[in-house]
Amino acid sequence: MNTILFMVQKETLQVLRDRKMLIQIFVPPVMQLLILAQAMTFEVSHVDMVVVDQDHSPASSTLVEHFTATGRFSIAVSTQSGHAADEALLTREARMILRIPDGFERNLRRGESPSLQLIMDAEDGAAAGIVLGWAQSVIQGYARTEGVRLVGAPVGRRAGPALTVTTRRLYNPEGRYLAYMAIGLLASLMTLVGVLLTSQNIAREKEIGTLEQLNVTPITKREFMLGKLIPFWILGLIELTIGLAVIRFLFGIPFEGAVGLIYLAAAVYLIAALGLGLFVSTISSTQQQAQFITFFVLVTFFFMGGIFTPVQSMPMWAQSVAELNPIKHFAVILRGVLMKGATLTDILRPLGAMTAFAVVVLVLSVRRYRKTA
Predict the structure, then answer these.
(1) Which pLDDT belongs to residue 211?
(2) Are residues 119 and 187 located together in one domain of the fold?
(3) The domain spanning residue 157 has which CATH number?
């Protein structure tokens, strides 16, 4: 028993004396609890919508006011162009299109049946269902104030004209959550290859002493970095190929856009992920430290990257932080190309964000390596 108590005392003192270990034990969990508990939510608190008002009447303006008065809907785009409205959904500028056709007020006042159209971004089927429920609730309230009924609503004794609402679900008409989740998980698996393997590889070199031997050879810093990164970059692309095959042929999810764009984005993203892993390795002395830091980084990046919960559902401060997250941009590109048929023009913004992250993290890694080499 005394031997066990002695060992407990020894290990406790050893941990308490290691300041880096103490920080890794207590700081990351507290930070993740404070940040992720607020950022991760399946709730949809706000919806940006496109208004295509082709009637330009007091009745159509009142309907739009009913939407904005709830506090849940705001007008992101107001246009007469159907193409511009669809583009807003494609680029995630909005989640819903409210189309009010010409003659809406005329039909309403004449006792005829006016019609409306709701077009939802159903990429995330669960969120689209929530938004649709909200929209239908608003339209029901508007119908009551105007003395009309919705098609499908119970018919009373004095049934007036019926308000017809047609709904279209774009990009995921069946609302399959598998498509949304499988594509997001592919981004996370590639991140594991990039960050985890790279950070562990160089930390292991430090522990066994081979890194010091490499430093005294004629090999340059650039050659060392490229030699470390290229094998994992190739492995990442191979894993992408396997993942795409599983999604397409095993899950039966059709690809709407050009797969070549996915490989272009993946090539850039893997550089960013590998650079991040390289940076983690330069600030770690052992594999254990690298594991702690990598775990903290990956958990935070995953849960704030829109893979499991929509970024649009997060608080505004979390959405701003997510703009610095390369996983978020890569997931946007994957889902945009594969589910929405996005083109190169549509993905330039997230592609540019990933490129900027890759450049910054590689520069930091090289400088840090020179400092410790």
Answers:
(1) 67
(2) no
(3) 3.40.1710.10
